[in-house]
């Protein structure tokens, strides 16, 4: 077929005439067809190159260049040939600037696909082409000038010159080019910088919107260079540039106003009086009579300062949300420069909390959070009504942003603190789904305002106390919230010499799950339980209980290793660490130090280590039962071991990894027991395919043990490899089993790994490994085929002897993902046939940066798509890496709705490569790092 098309194309070719449209179309169809033979492609390349050299028709050149660019894109191995051909063609001359620009565009497109092909253009030729008659060519050359290796001085001269061009878009590109030159930072002559800056100032009055917008960028970037170059008058120049940018915030063009406010935030040295002027529409008295060295006269300064009057007021009152957002972003950067400026700006920010746009309200809250972070948010009673209104906003993002501020804000009076806590409690009653967020805020503000909290708790203590029958009213969400507020203050915290009821710590234990879930960014559940129990028991032992009330107060008696002879102070919390812990509990009466939580955790670590070693010993005993044909009894022992693991909720990451490894090891042994019963004793009925399923599960579990746990000792690694050997031997011992050659290869590879450990002097080869080596040698020289080999491998099973696994200090690799706001009732929208973005919140634990991770998205077993997660680009640390990423799914079906199964998988480069149906996907075996998550989509 392709030869027929090419023959018909050749018939219409004539070297003396331009290529006909039919020939061009035919050649393009052959170029984009991946099955076109190399010989035809070579003929097309030769024909197009010849046409480019001989034809004088500009339209033919245009189409020929496009075809050559496509040819380089589809046949990348031809890119260097096409690039050299175009680079040496006569089109790169001043005869036709348009054709020269098109040729350079083609070269640039090819070079993008192959960075080893640099474009080097002579400075003189570049300048000549820029001054050519074609405006479109001039535009393209100015926009792409940095690609051609032109010297910086030539570029500066060309850009500065074309800022006077009669065409507005040329002036814009010239100004953008000047902004781009700032990154080189090679201009040391202050007069050159000043001249470029004033050219930008001059073009701020250009009649064209696009030019004024680009001029703002020049004033911003070159103004900052001018500030840096004038160290003696740095503040003076900084004020001048700032005011010059302020003069553009009332421009008629929305884009200019947005760009101006964005630029204002980049000036980080501004006098306080100039900043205050931006918040007042009336020219302040402190501005009048001032003089600037950079503006030379007092009159010039006053004129420019008047343009800064009310700049931020105009921005925050702008009719366009984009301008308001830009003004808020700039205000957020400047607000830390002056406490007085921050105080006056607060009134404007509070008004923005009532804006119609949710985006603007969120931006205002983010600015307030920034102020609270830098401790310049001074909230007054006049602000509280608007501030508290955000806590009951109908948008959950607004409420969440407001709670972030309350965590940090410092309230100056008890009345403001009471208003804040009442506002949080009201928010909780209206939106009970915000329980975790509100609990967390109450705990934070309680810690930040200890005296105020003690007063409030004493006022409401009757609400928390048990009712007449001795039961707590913990079904009330308000009571639960007050308990959280109360435990945020140390037990020893006094107000007017009296402590609030310390039994509240005991009541809080009954809500441990809800409270620990809300405080997971501060303290883990075990540490919180230890603290609450310590306070409760310390209180009881110190004789603080009122006579006659002991029987009606539920004190939770939790068994923890701690000294309870004295009441204990509230420990300090370390924020910002997901695994933060309460470091110590210090006695506040006699000065004695109680048992620290670190000691408790060490005791927990020792207890878990002993328990796991006991589990491993029981597993070894269970395996002896298996070899004696007592498989059912062995399975009971394994189930009991599994139940023992379930009681542990470790606080140390080391214990988390050890428990996960033990659980995985129990799964492996359980599968081996079942397979052993099928293959060796044949005491269990084996349905068709059941043994193959069990063997597949066993191989996956063993693969996970090898790659999802880091830090094995050499003995432990050899133990896992021997289990892999046993898995292969069990598979090879069945005549009817599939994947014989693959399993044999895997067996050989595993033996090699064990031998490598032996050569390092780390381990001794077991009898089972030695027998496997001999059998592999015999299989390699036997002529009996598969049936003979299966008999030989079956004899190996009896040579395997059980070993006891040891407690391991390993690191567990795992992940978690979720699709926020998505469920069966709230599907994501999509258009059939078009790609759809799946927003995923991904958390990776202990995953090294070099790991190859993929997002697996499957509609069915036959319709799977993979997306590569490049951890080097995503950033973060190797311990916990959390990010949100939108993953495109391309193969949306022509259906009203569908569901995707999404999970994170890790590619195992040490496994043999295998074919995958998804183009561009992983080429090796995969291991799941998290359970699959269902994503629901519905057609728009």
Automatic annotation (TrEMBL):
It holds the Pfam family INTS4_C. One of its GO terms (biological process) is intercellular transport. Residues 819-937 form the Integrator complex subunit 4/Protein SIEL C-terminal Ig-like domain. One of its GO terms (cellular component) is nucleus. It is found in: Nucleus. Keywords: Nucleus. Its main location: nucleus. It comes from the Eukaryota. This is Integrator complex subunit 4/Protein SIEL C-terminal Ig-like domain-containing protein. It comes from Manihot esculenta. The lineage of its organism: Eukaryota, Viridiplantae, Streptophyta, Embryophyta, Tracheophyta.
């Amino acid at each position: 077929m392709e030869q027929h098309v090419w023959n018909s194309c050749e018939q219409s070719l004539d070297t003396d005439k331009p290529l006909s449209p039919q020939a061009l179309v035919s050649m393009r169809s052959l170029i984009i067809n991946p099955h076109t033979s190399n010989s035809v492609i070579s003929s097309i390349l030769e024909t197009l190159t010849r046409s480019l050299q001989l034809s004088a028709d500009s339209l033919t050149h245009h189409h020929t260049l496009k075809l050559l660019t496509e040819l380089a894109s589809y046949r990348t191995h031809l890119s260097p040939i096409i690039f050299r051909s175009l680079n040496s063609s006569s089109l790169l001359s001043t005869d036709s600037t348009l054709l020269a620009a098109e040729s350079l565009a083609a070269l640039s497109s090819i070079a993008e696909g192959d960075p080893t092909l640099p474009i080097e253009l002579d400075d003189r030729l570049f300048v000549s082409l820029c001054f050519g008659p074609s405006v479109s060519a001039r535009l393209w050359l100015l926009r792409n000038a940095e690609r051609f290796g032109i010297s910086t001085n030539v570029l500066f001269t060309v850009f500065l010159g074309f800022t006077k061009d009669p065409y507005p878009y040329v002036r814009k590109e010239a100004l953008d080019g000047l902004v781009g030159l700032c990154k080189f930072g090679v201009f040391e002559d202050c007069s050159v910088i000043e001249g470029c800056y004033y050219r930008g100032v001059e073009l701020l009055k250009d009649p064209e919107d696009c030019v004024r917008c680009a001029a703002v960028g020049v004033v911003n970037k070159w103004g900052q260079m001018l500030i840096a170059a004038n160290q003696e008058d740095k503040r003076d120049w900084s004020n001048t540039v700032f005011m010059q940018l302020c003069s553009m915030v009332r421009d008629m063009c929305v884009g200019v106003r947005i760009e101006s406010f964005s630029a204002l935030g980049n000036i980080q040295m501004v006098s306080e009086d100039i900043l205050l002027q931006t918040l007042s529409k009336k020219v302040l008295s402190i501005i009048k009579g001032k003089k600037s060295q950079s503006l030379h006269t007092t009159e010039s300064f006053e004129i420019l300062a008047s343009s800064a009057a009310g700049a931020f007021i105009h921005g925050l009152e702008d009719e366009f949300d984009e301008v308001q957002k830009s003004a808020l972003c700039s205000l957020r950067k400047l607000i830390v420069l002056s406490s007085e400026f921050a105080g006056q700006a607060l009134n404007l920010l509070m008004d923005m909390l009532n804006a119609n746009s949710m985006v603007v309200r969120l931006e205002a809250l983010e600015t307030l959070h920034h102020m609270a972070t830098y401790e310049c948010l001074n909230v007054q009673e006049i602000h509280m009504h608007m501030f508290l209104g955000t806590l009951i906003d109908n948008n959950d993002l607004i409420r969440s942003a407001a709670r972030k501020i309350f965590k940090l804000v410092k309230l100056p009076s008890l009345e403001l603190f009471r208003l804040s806590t009442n506002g949080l409690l009201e928010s909780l009653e209206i939106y009970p789904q915000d329980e975790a967020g509100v609990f967390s805020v109450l705990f934070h503000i309680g810690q930040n305002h200890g005296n105020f909290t003690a007063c409030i708790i004493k006022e409401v203590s009757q609400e928390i106390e048990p009712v007449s029958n001795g039961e707590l009213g913990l079904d009330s969400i308000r009571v639960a919230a007050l308990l959280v507020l109360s435990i945020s203050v140390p037990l020893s915290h006094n107000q007017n010499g009296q402590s609030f009821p310390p039994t509240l710590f005991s009541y809080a234990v009954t809500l441990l799950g809800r409270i620990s879930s809300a405080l997971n960014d501060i303290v883990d559940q075990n540490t919180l339980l230890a603290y609450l129990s310590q306070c409760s028991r310390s209180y009881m032992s110190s004789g603080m209980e009122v006579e006659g009330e002991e029987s009606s107060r539920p004190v939770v008696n939790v068994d923890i290793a701690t000294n309870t002879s004295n009441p204990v102070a509230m420990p300090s919390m370390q924020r910002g660490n997901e695994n933060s812990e309460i470091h110590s509990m210090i006695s506040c009466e006699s000065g004695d130090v109680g048992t620290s939580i670190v000691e408790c955790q060490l005791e927990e670590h020792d207890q878990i280590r002993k328990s796991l070693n006991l589990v491993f010993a029981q597993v070894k005993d269970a395996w002896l039962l298996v070899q004696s044909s007592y498989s059912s009894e062995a399975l009971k022992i394994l189930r009991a071991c599994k139940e023992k693991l379930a009681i542990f909720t470790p606080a140390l990451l080391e214990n988390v990894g050890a428990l996960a490894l033990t659980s995985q090891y129990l799964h492996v042994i359980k599968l081996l027991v079942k397979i052993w019963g099928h293959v060796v004793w044949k005491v269990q009925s084996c349905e068709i395919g059941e043994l193959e399923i069990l063997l597949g599960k066993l191989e996956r579990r063993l693969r996970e043990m090898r790659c999802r746990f880091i830090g094995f000792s050499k003995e432990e690694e050899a133990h896992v490899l021997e289990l892999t050997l046993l898995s292969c031997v069990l598979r090879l011992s069945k005549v009817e089993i599939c994947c014989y050659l693959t399993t044999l290869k895997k067996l050989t590879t595993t033996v090699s790994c064990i031998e490598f450990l032996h050569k390092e002097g780390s381990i001794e080869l077991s009898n089972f490994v030695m027998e496997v080596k001999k059998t592999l040698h015999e299989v390699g020289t036997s002529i009996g085929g598969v049936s003979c080999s299966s008999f030989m491998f079956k004899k190996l099973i009896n040579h395997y002897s059980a070993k006891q696994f040891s407690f391991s200090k390993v690191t567990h690799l795992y992940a978690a993902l979720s699709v926020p706001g998505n469920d069966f009732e709230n599907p994501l929208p999509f258009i059939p046939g078009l790609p759809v973005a799946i927003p995923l919140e991904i958390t990776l634990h202990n995953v090294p940066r070099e790991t190859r991770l993929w997002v697996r998205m499957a509609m069915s077993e036959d319709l799977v798509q993979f997306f590569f997660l490049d951890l080097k680009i995503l950033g973060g640390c190797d311990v916990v890496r959390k990010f949100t990423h939108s993953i495109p799914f391309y193969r949306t079906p022509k259906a009203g709705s569908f569901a995707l199964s999404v999970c994170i998988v890790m590619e195992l480069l040490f496994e043999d490569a295998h074919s995958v149906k998804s183009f561009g996907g992983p080429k090796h075996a995969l291991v799941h790092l998290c359970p699959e998550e269902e994503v629901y989509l519905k057609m728009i």
